[in-house]
Amino acid sequence: MRFDLHTHHERCGHAVGEVEDYVLAALDQGLDAIGISDHSPFFHSDKEQADPGIAMEKREFPAYVKDVLRLKEKYADRIEVLLGVEADFLPEGVASYRRQLQKYPLDYVIGSVHYTFGRNIFDRDRWKGADDEDLFKVKEAYFDLIAASARSGDYQVLGHIDAIKGFCPEITDIQTNKVENALQTIAEEQVAIEVNTSGKMKACGGWYPSEDILERACFYGVPVTMGSDAHHPRRVGDDLEAVRAKLKDIGFTEWWLFREKKPVSVAL
Ligand SMILES: [Zn+2]
Ligand SMILES: [Zn+2]
Q: Which terms in the GO cellular component ontology are assigned (predicted)?
């Protein structure tokens, strides 16, 4: 089975194309299923749109859901369209996100850590002048958040679990047992991690997570899924077959997709 669970579109303010363009791209790629998972609004904020260019307005979310459900129906005999969302994991925002997201018939929620110490991990400036001590602190905080997101019970998928390396590749070499601890927690909770192929668009190159993390994940029995994190329709399904081959190589035998928040295991 060919699928991609992580895609965005123009509502978030930094992706290109309408939802339907991504569905059509998925058909072009011969996918069996396409998950739409745009960035959720910042539900914990008092503002209607806390960060234009990063996430959609709150009032836009019901329209997003309607749009995806309409396409689910329209393309039902050609491709399975899944309704997802990528939600920020912010400890202070958990309750508001939960309250809002439970109103919608989501097939899955991707929980992603995009912030540590109040700053976006993809903000290149935050890494300027950081020494090993700083990197160690950020890395420990980041993987603690990843573990906490797994324990929250709010997510079917954890997004790009080592994205902290995106614009700071050298953080990969900082040693801490928090990575191992997070993987053990994820395995206990049986939340899926995605192989997210968008790392190649960032300074770190390659995919999230790195191969050694995937090997440890396999060892602990962490479930996996696949997402391109496409912000342009041409990236839908990017590296899908390479991911499948790599996962098999490592020792995984199945990957998961989700319908109505229930995992569906598919042989690799
Ligand atoms: Zn994005
Ligand atoms: Zn993300």
A: cytoplasm
* pLDDT tens sequence across 84-110: 999 999 999 999 999 999 999 999 999
Q: Distance from the CA of 198 to the center of ligand 1, in angstroms? A: 10
Angstrom distance (rounded) from CA 149 to CA 127: 24
Confidence of residue 159 (pLDDT cuts 50, 70, 90): very high
Domain 3-8+84-267 carries which CATH code?
Answer: 3.20.20.140
- What pLDDT does 130 receive? 94
Domain positions in the chain are: 3-8+84-267
| CA–CA dist 218, 58 (Å, integer) | 37
CA of 86 to the centre of ligand 1 (A): 9
pLDDT, tens digit, 9 for 90 and up, residues 23-53: 999 999 999 999 999 999 999 999 988 888 9
Taking the CA of residue 268 as centre, how many other CA atoms within 13 Å lie in the half-sphere pointing to its CB? 20
- Ion ligand 2: residues, CB within 5 A, are 112, 159
CA of 175 to the centre of ligand 2 (A): 24
| Ligand 1 centroid to residue 251 C-alpha, Å | 30
- Tell me the CA–centroid distance for residue 114 and ligand 2, in Å: 7
- 189: amino acid identity, one letter: E
Q: What is the DSSP string of 211-250?
A: HHHHHHHHHHT--EEEE--BSSGGGTTTTHHHHHHHHHHH
